[in-house]
Amino acid sequence: MSVNGRGATAPKLNSAELNSLREFWDVYETQFAEIGAEIAQDAAAHPELATFVGAGDGDEVAESRERIAQAINDGDWADYLADMVAAGSRYAESGLSFSAWFATGRSLRSKLVPLLIDALSEEPERLAEAVRGVSIFIDLVILAVGDSFIDAKERIITEQQDVLRGLSTPVLELRPGLLLVPLIGFIDSERALLLTGNLLEAIAAKRARAIVLDITGVPAVDSAVANHLMQTVQATQLMGAHTLVSGLSPENAQTLVRLGLDLARLNTVGTLADGVVSASSILKAAEARAAEYESSLA
Amino acid sequence: MAIPILKQGSTLIVSLQAEPTDAEFVALQRELTERVTQTRAKGVVVDVTSLDVLDSFATRTLREIAQTVTLCGARAAIVGVQPEVAFAMAQLGLSLEGTLTALDLEDGLALLHALPQVTSVT
What we know:
The structure holds two protein chains of two kinds.
Chain A: H1 15-30, H2 32-45, H3 58-74, H4 78-93, H5 98-120, H6 124-168, E1 172-175, E2 178-184, H7 189-206, E3 210-217, H8 223-238, E4 242-246, H9 250-258, H10 272-297
Parallel strand pairs in A: 2-3, 3-4
Antiparallel strand pairs in A: 1-2
Helix pairs in contact in A: 1-3, 1-6, 2-5, 4-6, 5-6, 7-8
Chain B: E1 6-8, E2 11-15, H1 22-39, E3 43-47, H2 56-71, E4 75-79, H3 83-92, E5 100-102, H4 105-114
Parallel strand pairs in B: 2-3, 3-4, 4-5
Antiparallel strand pairs in B: 1-2
Helix pairs in contact in B: 1-2
């Protein structure tokens, strides 16, 4: 038995499994609405599920029964699994925990087994088959819902990472020729690369001559972070820009010295304000040079 | 084909087009040093705007050009390093430390012009 990867692909069932499923469904179908109501009641008592599970009107219940019948009797699982996949991503998007929706599956099992025992107590062989059918059915449901639940969670994480990545390395133009890069949060190599790339593009696009890289918001600066920053600073120098690093905290400064790193090339200044002042004078000098050169040509 | 060296006032300008071979780089270094001495040039600008890669040999040669030119009494500036090139160089740990760099030819000329030794650039 397998659901065959993602989405609503029909499970591969052998004839014994199919037989078990049918035995179980024959009984379940007769009590479908009642079981559904009981599960909704259980859900209402569950702290997480309470707001989530509606009563489910008669039409929905009938439709759901129709789909299961279609799956088990005719082997056409597409509609039912599509339902489960939709449910899985709905659970994930509404922030429901894994254990909460898993509880629904357990609640279903605990309702079904006594029902089967009642109905088939006279025929132990059919009862055994039907109980096996419950397991198969619930496994299929959990597999389909779980797959889609995890897919949806992963999708949400990827989307958030994209958003964070965009937020993580803003390059601001403080005035023509002067860029400010406020860094907040941990800097890992991926972020450092992104920062360097963005900054270099911005230097070319805005013809920047001075840059202030403010690391006030970077909680821990260790040798790896310092190396990343050094690389960034050197890369900007290759393009003829001057980069100043501001906002190195006293604690971080001590750490770096204790690590024995040569940070002369980082061009550190005190606060962001100091950085902006120094960068402005660098920019002014560059502009004066350009103006003087231009007038010398005239 | 030899890389052309242009003279503008007391500045020599070299614009590197398609990635020069190692041999061309070596020839350029020799040629430039000779021309600086001959023309008593005070500045050298090497424009790498059109290059989309600078490997370790090219980087080292550019640094050496700057050093030899300085020994001959002029100053050299490397200008026009593209963002992607700078990115790749930083990744590889290649740097032009000790040489002047500028965003483009114009900035490079202004930079050399502002240096005390090169007051007569025009």
